[in-house]
Amino acid sequence: MPRLQIMSVPSPAGRNILVAGGTGTIGIPVVRALVERGATVTVVSLDSSHYAREVLPEDVEFIRADLTDPNECLRVTAGREWVLNLVGIKGSTGIGTSKAASYFVPMLRFQMNLMDAAFRSGVARYLFVSSICAYPQANFHEEDSVWNGLPKQNDRYAGIAKRVGEIQAETYLQEYGWDAVRIVRPSNVYGPFDDFEPATAQVIPALIRRAIDGDDPLHVWGDGSAVRDFIFSQDLAAGLLLALEKAPPCVPINLGSGVGVTIKQLAETIAASMSRPPRIAWDPSKPTGDPVRILSTARAEKLLGFRAATSLNEGVKLTTEWYLANRSLASRKRSTLRA
C-alpha cells in the first residue's frame, strides 16, 4: 500500500467538476458545498431532469446518462478536472439474493467504466466512494483489515464490488502513475433527500416514515441489540471534500462517527422525535445482520482532521423535519431495486 503522507492541498474553486450520483443523499450536499466553494459543477445521474432541477443549485448543469455505457462515461468525463463517483444502487434487504445480478453487475460496470474514462480523460482528482460493506465480519473496522476475510454473506456482492473498485485504482497508480484516486469508506449514511419509500428505505428513513405515517406500535426487526455506526449526510459531504483535498492517492479512509449506536437507541430516538411518540414492538424472528459494526476514525482524524459533528439526536431531528416539509419531493425520487 502507498506510504501514508499528507499531499499538497488543492482547492475546488474554479475547477470543472463532475459529480456522478449528484442527486442522491450524499451527492446533493456535496454539490452544494462545491458550488459554495466556487467550482463549476456538472451532475450526471439516472434521476429525472425535473427532479434534478428541484434539488440542485440553479447554476449546476445536469446530464441524464447511463454510466454502465463506457461511451457515456467518456462523454461526461471529457474536459473535467475532478470527478466524484457517488453513484450507488440502494434497495431493500432482500436484493442481495432476489436481485443479485441486477444489483452486482451494473455496479461493477458503472464504477469500472467511470474510473477508466476519468483515467483516459486525464482527470487530476477522482473520488471513489467505497463502503463499510467491504469489510469482513468484525466488531471494529480499521482500514488495513479489509482483506482479513470475505465480506459478510449478506453484504458480499456490494462488498466485493467495492473492493474491485479500490484495486482498480491501485492498478492505474502502479502501471501508469495515475495518482488521482482518493478512496473513502463511509459508514451507514442518512439525512435529507434519502429514500423514504417503505419497500426500499434503509433503517433510519424507514422508521421515520413509518412513525410519521402513524404506525403504533412501531415494529422494528430484531431485539434492538445490534450496534451500528451512523453518519449524517452533511458530515459525510464535508469528509469527502477533505479527502479530495488532503488524502494520499489510493489510501482508503473510513468516514463514520466512530460511535456505536444500538438499534434500540435509534428506534427510541426516532420515536421520541415524533409529536406523539409511538410504542416500539420488537420482532426477534427477523434478521439483524452483524451484532456490532463500527468504523475506526483514527486515520480520518490524522490525515484529514475530520470528525463527524452531528449527533444522532440532531441528525434524526433534521432528517425528520426535512421529510415532513418535503414529502411530495421525496416521493418523486427515482425508484431503486426492490426485493
Descriptive overview:
Helix 1 crosses helix 8 (233-246) and helix 7 (203-212) runs parallel beside helix 9 (263-272). The chain has a domain at 16-193 and 230-258 and 292-310: Rossmann fold (3-Layer(aba) Sandwich). 39% of the residues lie in helices and 17% in strands. It is built from twelve helices and 15 strands. The chain is globular. The longest helix has 21 residues, at 100-120. By secondary structure, the chain is an alpha/beta fold. Mean pLDDT is 91; it is low at 1-8. It has a seven-stranded parallel β-sheet with strand order 3-2-1-4-5-7-12, sandwiched between helices. The chain has a four-stranded mixed β-sheet with strand order 6-15-10-13.
Task: Provide a quick synopsis of the model.
This protein is of the alpha/beta class. Helices cover 39% and strands 17% of the residues. It has a domain at 16-193 and 230-258 and 292-310: NAD(P)-binding Rossmann-like Domain (Rossmann fold, 3-Layer(aba) Sandwich), CATH 3.40.50.720.
